Amino acid sequence: MQEKISVIIPALNEADLIYSQVKSLFHKGNDSALEVIVVDGGSSDNTRELALKAGAQVIDSAPGRSVQMNAGAARATGDVFYFVHADLTVPDTFVEDIRKAVAGGFSYGCYQVAFDRPVKGLRFNSSLSKYQGIFFRGGDQTLYITRELFKHIGGFDETIVIMEDYEILLRARKYGKIHIMPQKVIISARKMEQNNYFKTNVINVLVFVLFFLGAPQKMLVNIYSRQVKGSKYRM
Fold first, then answer.
1. Is 211 helix (H, G, I), strand (E, B) or coil?
2. Separation of alpha carbons 184 and 188, rounded Å
C-alpha cells in the first residue's frame, strides 16, 4: 500500500495564489492518497473561500508558520507530511518523488530550488541548494517528513516565529542526514524584486547568524520586518 501524503500549506492573505496552488497540487498528485490542507492564519481577504473552492480542507489557526503547520499536521491523516508555501511551484512528480524517497529509507527531505526569473544573482543562490549543510536549507525548498519522525521530534517549535524551518531540521538531523532531491521547486522572486538583491541576502545571512548565536526571536523579527518589504513576520 502506498503512503498517503498530506500537503500542508500555511497561508495568510494569499488570495492571489491559493486557488491555483491547490488545484495544481491535486492535478500533479492525480492520486486518491493525497490530501491538501490549507491552514489560514486570519486572512483578511478570501483565501479561505478560494482554498475551499479548489478542494482543500481549510482550518483556522493563530498566525505564525510554526503554529499553523502544527495545526495542519494535527488534522492530517497522511503517512507523510509535505509542507509547502503558497507562492511556489512543486515538481510535477512530487508524489512519486516523496514515495520513492521514503521507500528508500529517507524519513525527511527537500528539493533543490530555482527562481522564476532568470537573474544571475538568483541563479547563484539557487545553485547552493544542492549542497548538504544547514546553511543551504530553507522553507522555500519545501519539506517532507514522515508522520512518525514528525511526532517523535515534537513537530515545529511554536516559540519560533522566524527560522522555524531551520530549527526543526536541527532536531531532525539527529536521526540522519536530510535527503536532497535532484528536482527543483520553482520559487517566486517577488521578495527579491521588492527589495535590493544584495541587501536582502545580507539581511538573510545576518538573521541566520544571529539565530545560531541565540538571539531572541523578537530581535530577529524586528530586523527582518523592518528591512525586508513584504515580510509577514509579526510578534
1. helix
2. 13
